[in-house]
Structure prediction request, 418 residues.
Amino acid sequence: MNEINEKLSALYDGELNAAEVDELIDIISKEKRLQKQISMYSLIGAAVSQQSTNVTALDPKKNIKNAFSNIWFSNALTAAASVLLTLTFVNNVDFSRMDINTNSSKQISSAINSKEAKNIAEKSNEYLADHIMNIINDPNYMSSKNPLDLQNVGYKSNSDNGYIHSKGNERFQLRIENKNFGIKQIRYWKHGNKMIYLVPLNDGRVLTLYGNISLSSALSIAESANK
Amino acid sequence: MKKNSDDIDSVLIEKARNGNKGAFSILVNKYYPRVYATLFSFTKSKEDSEDLSQQTFIKVWQQLESFRGDSAFFTWVYRIAINLAKNFVASSGYKKQKINTSIEQAEIDISSFEDIESAVIHKQSLKEIKNFINTLPESLKTAFTLREVEGRSYEDISVITDTPIGTVRSRIFRARESIIDFMQKELITNE
Prediction:
């Protein structure tokens, strides 16, 4: 059985030859235990690649074992998946929030609930989802030619490895989209130990920053790009 | 030739397109946890997320012919899941105040996590898993880390560690088994 499990691990890594893959698929399709094993490998891989998050421990008194027991046994894979709940949810800066009033909120709310607005928003969301997934999944996506000179804000650019910008501990890549994804305010996410910032520019484009970079630095770069 | 996880996805997708349900079940099991996690971030409901996860993979199966391979398989699956979640949210009878109605809101609303135990589970268990990996024997830890963190092929790892490929494969497998064993013993109770 260990031999099968070891092959399964190699299959997961894409390291079996075609004949072995065929043979193993037949075996896996008959064994639920092996199917679950694949999910566990996936879970471990995702856990390791994410490593740490900023999701706050909301109730430190809660015993982790009890927390797991509440959800695990109804569906082991589902509970395992909850470990991954992170692609990740950090914050949003709303520059206009400080001076918005109730009436204008209602008007905006009415406008954004119109059918047309919803259609636009859905399209934008799809583009945005694709954009974020490309950033995360495609190593070449962010390595496009540097469209901005960041020397005036103190960043060095290294084109040897996909146009990486650096200053002190900060290292990141950037790209500019000619569409705005429907966003009107800076938005950011945490993925693993990296940040993703989407910053709408004054000319209607969107600046994407991805890497180890703080929000304040992202804002200063955006300010520079807007000049 | 260097193979990786995307390569095996392509092989499995091709087989699934030809009706091989075993190949498809491997893809489902490989991506179910990530799809579920995505959907849970929308619905905040275990039951709804399970239902939507199942619907997602039914749609994936039905639409597999249309997957062109322009993006990673999971990116495509993710879009299907998101669209289902949006339709679900828009459907009548769903308590909109309970959930976020768009990706944007879902992604920004950290306060919506406040009643979710899994936010706590997540951080603590990831840390425990990471700590456990650090306790693995050096040979297992090295092979596993090169594979999972750096995405190296077995051949690369074999060269880097000056070890036969068969040994690399065995070490990665043993590391995974140890981690699963740890998770089942330490992070999951039998209550």
